[in-house]
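Late entry, written up from scratch paper. The run itself happened at the end of the previous shift, but nothing got recorded in the book at the time, so transcribing now.
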Amino acid sequence: MRRVLVVVLLMGACLGAQETRYHQLSARAKGSDGAIKIIASTWLGGPGAEELVAACYQPSGALLAVGNAWGPRLPGARVWGPDNYRDAPVWSDPGRHLLDHANPNRAGCVWRLSPDLAKVEAMVRLGWGMGVFTSAAVGADGALYLGGLGRDPFVNWARPQPGAKLGPPSPMAAGGSALFVMRCRADLTAVDWIAVFERGERQAADVERPVGGRVGARFRILGERELVAQAYGRLYSLNAGSGAARELGPTKGGMLLAADPRQGRIYTGGDEPAFTGREPWQRPLLTAYDRVGRAQWQYWRWDGRQVGPDAYRLVADSSVRGLTPLAEGKVLAWGQSDGGNSVFGRQPTNLDQPAPVRQGFVDSLAGAGAGSYGWLLAVDTAKAEVYAATHVASFQPSQDKPNSSRIDGACLLGGRRVAVVGSAAFAFVESPDAWVRTGPEGGGGPYFAIYSETLGDLLFGSLLPGVDGPLAMARRETRVAIVGTGVAPVDPAATRPPLIAPRQAELAGAADGYVLVAEVGR
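Output as recorded:
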């Protein structure tokens, strides 16, 4: 009897030794008993290659899927501007890298879809070689605003358009590019105005640096009749009706992340090089401005020589990548760091006060190697206080080792839950009702997750196999749309993307847009 007991105890010790944080967190993931479910999902595209970079809901419920196409054609699309490269070869990339934005055979495109994705109500694209779309938003009247990067053909087409606003007035160099914002009718039948920001002599030394995104004009809706845009390091106010631009002034670093019409506030964020006295350091920055462009406050922009000494050693390179305004001056910010010893782990204006990451779902990056790790941070800006936080990381299940994970976007759902999309390098924690089960050891790739208001619980988590990121997300009432780039799995035996009631069930080219609509409840 005694020998049997020893054997049982030893077996239990061995099994316990194999359990890692991945398995412990998987046991904690709650799930929704199937209430969070896919309503419809499909591929969109022609015989070339397409990607989707943004999604917006119109007041009517129609979904606008915004992206870019690489020819030779996109059947059924209305064309804006000259089709300069329609005979160029189809894009292909055996190495499965991101679609090549240097390729002249490309065009921004938009699909207007019925709420259930069953019908394409309208489709438009720019002429081949004109430029790409990088951001989008819908106004209260249903009009679509698009931001992007245009080449010479786009600027030449834009100059005579009604309502065209070009500035600063300077000739473009051969093969040059310009940033633009444009307004389109809700039914996509016409362009109301185009604001083009060309690189002037004063701004020749400025470089548009993408912070977790693509190079292109960034803009946000600041009010019923006003947009705020960023181009070449400066903020502009745009009249939503006419497109007339008024310069607000230079930013204090970073890229435009969000605007809050309720607070009349504009946010920029990113990172910048600094020095700790021992080593180089990328310090994060988040700045708030009022609606006329005056800086109100900055978070996390510490002097490197202050965080570098042994008293702190908060020297993990860090960056603020996105922000969503919440109610009452609160915001949900997200970012990246290359380790756990980041200033994100402390309050944004007090290095001696910890942020409540220990109450988050992933409460530690202990044991992590070199990589890039996501942070979710809920901040009360009236108190300059992070009141909820969590790491977003993947795991190596057999080694109890956190690994890289990226956050592409986040939004607030009903019940103050937080929805997140991104990509994981290794196993991402799945909830029991995940849309795709990757097995007991999990897997990596793009993911969709829902956290509790406190960020302490994972309410839903699922991978999206066969989809390339970055992903984007839009919410309307109890539904969420997720868009990205659909690709054939590298491993033919791998799970294909979830396709539910698809209007296009097969890839039409080297890559297609991928769109998914899910019910997420209240």
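Confidence is low (pLDDT under 50) at residues 1-17, 94-98, 168-174, 200-207.
(Scratch paper discarded after transcription.)
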